[in-house]
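hi! just following up on the protien thing from before. the input was this:
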Amino acid sequence: MTTSFAPLTVAIGDLVPHPANVRSNSPETYDPENIAHLKASIAVLGLLQPLLVQKLDGKYAVLAGGRRHAALKELVADKATKGFMAKTKVDCRLVPDDCDVTTALSLAENITQAPMNAIDEFEAFARMMEVDGQTPETIAKTFGTTVAAVKGRLRYGLIHPDIRAAARGKVITLDTMKAFAEHPSQEAQREVFEALTKDGGYLQAYTVRQALKSRGVQVSDDIGAFVRADYEARGGAVAADLLEEHSVLEDAALVETILLEKLGAAAEEARTRLGFAWADAMVRYDYATMADYGRVYPGPIEPDEAAQKRVDEITAELEKLQLEMEDEGLEDGAYNALYDRVDALEEEARDLQEAYSAEDLARSGVIASWQGGQITLHVGLVRQEDTVKEEGARGSSASPTGEEAPDAGEITYPASLAEDLKTERAMALGAAMALHPEATLDLTLFKLVSDVLASGMSVTQAIKIDARKEYRSHAKMDEIDETSLEQVAAAHDALDLSWLDDTRAPADQFAAFRALEAGEKAKLVAYATASTTQSCFTRDRQRDSLMHALEIEIMPDIRAHWTPNAALFNRFKKAWLLKILGEDLGLAQEAVTLASSSKKEIVAFCDKLFAEPFATLTDAQRAAVAAWCPPMMQTAGVACDEAEPAAETPEPDSEVAQAA
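and the predicted 3d structure came back as:
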């Protein structure tokens, strides 16, 4: 239609807006920031499309091309731009005065100038570089955009022609075509495209990206950044991308070789420093492979004078840091920095107070793996062929708490945390005793008469029958799980204390006490005995068969009285939390995903998981979450299906069962 309109040139100063322009009611369209890219394009390339004008009151009113007109006026006003003045003439086409379709013409031009096809736009940018010799910088200036945006478009324009043709022909989607830009090499793109389409079927962007990963490692990947200098020093091929972060180290085998060398060197350095027998490396931590290893642990040693002085300094600093971390207004960065400092100090304190035995060092080693973008060391591992089979031949594998040696793969707890966990277990056991008055009454009476009438040692030291309430110390008493406290409080509220009146003489109180029903007396004795339970871990059958049997009877599952919470997880190392998630709970994928998160985020995840197990968990994972506690806190020798309330027992060959 516009070809019938007479061409003419008009000075920029003689152009005015036309009232019939459909954009005249949206003046924000002509704001400088909204036409910056158009101004930049006209400044470099000139006015590529004539304006549609109509004679109006001696001026030429712009009927279609208002944004181009606004850009021209900006160029005239911009003294830094050469070649654009009010007298400068630009190409136009004249609409006759008697034309009655002015509004229709304006609307038609504005809605028919649809954006370029995405592929056309990508290819146009590529041609400007390949044919016209332009750079991303000059293209960005022409179109008034950023260099990064131009490079992003250019990457798609440089995708193999066959793949672009497939996208243009709707054989693959535009998103799938874009996925091929993950690798700069058109040859690699073509090979993957042909391999994935040879059998037909729908091609997804995700499938393309996964296939291209086998063709190399991007320099922005954590492994790529870690090995790049050595890779290039050895002459490894690099497929350069317009965006540097998307360049690819093409020799995946060389990348892995260098990574394993670096991991091996780190493992060897740790072996030499700690005195282990062997060192090894693996690219990725493999839970199935690591499950085949046993593990030894350092045992307690008596620090010398200098070491003890340093331990005391660390203890004082840790107390100060704990107070700082309780500040609710603390920024995440500062909070994480404090966490890292606490971890480092606790590790230093452990090193000063613990050591491996010579026997364990002679049969164990260290493996270095790549986790969360850094080297992670797994120490004290024992190969299957080196496992000592003789009964009791565990060397210094006993935990630093003096309890029975942990099973292979168990986390070792620092002394301060172990003591607090003992306190929490004693509180849970006390709640169980208060809720089982008959059994506890029998225990009390049995200990009382046995200690008096029997010869030899006391039947158990686990409870005190000397009418004195046990004092339980805990570093964070106000932050522990309140389940056992609530249960004990409920048991207290149910007691008949009508006899307990300080205004009456003891003889009168005793008379009232004797008048109580037997069941009420049992509750009172049970509550009192429960208050004497001492801080403890699970009982050893050989050391205390009495309490071992009673605990199994009244507290088959500590989780009925206690739930792990954020306060506990805060005191665990980040590596421990990931280990618990991946190995104990069967949440291996979640552990891998969270490896790059901050410890604070992992603690929040664990707290939420245990407070209300996620609906997405499998039955085995749900059972593991419902039953988990530090191993030395659970009643010894009790299987999951013996616990009350009953929890579903994972299959023997499941990940949870293997982790346990």
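Residues 389-409, 637-660 have pLDDT under 50 and may be disordered.
DSSP finds 28 helices and 14 strands in the chain.
cheers
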